[in-house]
What does this fold into?
Amino acid sequence: MHGELPKQLWARTTTRRKRRVFIIGLIVIALVAALVYYFTGSTEQQQRTRGRFGGDSGPVPVLVAAAVKADVPVYLDGVGTTKALNTVTVRSQVDGKLIEVDFKEGQDVKRGDILARIDPTTFKAALDQAVAKKAQDQALLANAKNDLARYEQLAATNAINRQQADTQKSLVAQYTAQVDADQGAIENAQAMLAYTTIRAPLDGRTGIRQVDEGNIVHASDTTGVVVITQLKPISVFFNLPQQDISQVNAAFTKGPLSVDALRSDNDVVVDRGTLRVVDNQVDSTTGTVKLKAEFPNTELQLWPGQFVNVRLLIDTLKQVVVIPTGAVQRGPTGTFVYVVKEDNASTIRPITVQKQDENQTVVSKGLEPPERVVTTGFARLTDGAKVAISTGDGTPPAAGPVRQRQRGDRKRGDGNAQPSAPALPTPSAPPAAPQ
It folds into this structure.
């Protein structure tokens, strides 16, 4: 019994060794087959392999764009807050019961439109009393004037004492002043009666009603009846770093500056306005200056309290050379581009950059339209290398318009924040690249 156990253990160990040798043999065979296929495969496979590891595979595929000349506006970017040009809380100027509300919430109203009415009964009575009091005092004045005329005649013949005539003259002046006071009381009563009709003080849009019909309103109420907001035109306040103010002031002295309001999710212009005010001091806590622009807002694309991206036009570069920013490369000696010559050979060309943003670059020296520059495909590109211009359909690309830049990030709230490069918008479409 004890002799059979070692035999079983020995048989199991031998089986495991055979399996291990078999598996190792399969692995070795697979590796040998892979090496044989790699070194003895088809010519096409070898060419693809060499190309993958940097071997010579013919012209380098690239995308190109033609340099163009265009007028390029220069913008300063900021983030602004929209505010109503005027906001009025409409309050009652007299105390009384609100008997009528003549507006709907969110309604556009004009200056002078009736918004609400207060019970005018007591105010009409006060006006009637003032009118009656004036009539009474006018009668007394007329009688005093008649007496004065008689006394003057009698005093001239010494029939009465001159003092009596002078006293009557003073009485006439007293009644005259009383009649004038009565007229003032009438005008006051008329004004109080007019205040029972609440009218819109300006053109704008009503908000949510603050008081309902039937309530007693007072001139001392702070909530008022409704708030009217003027939406056309509308204001936008935005900040710029103090480093930009010298450019803004220099441009502002030459004439009105254009301001664009942009959507927050893209660069679509929702309205165009005019810069109205540059604040007279720098905020020392943020190192920025507040500016105010006014927009017509005819389509109500701007709303009070809304945050909008704004760009301020401060200059226009006339007929400058523009290329895509993706074509600009940087090396130890500075900026350069790969220029594609007529024989489709690339050459390195140093350039001087005047303005640059994320999408386009203004070149002041080094390029002349319609020279073509490489925008994509730099990995295998060298000076003098042949290129194959690709557009996806095998034809050379046409030079498209220079795209509008995206808004660059700009630090806010830091007195040492540096201004980002001014925005460069889309010029007119350039001519097609040479074939």
Notes: Helices lie at 4-40, 43-52, 121-156, 162-194, 245-252. Residues 132 and 403 are 79 Å apart (CA to CA). Residues 41-55, 392-435 have pLDDT under 50 and may be disordered. The chain is about 30% helix and 30% strand.
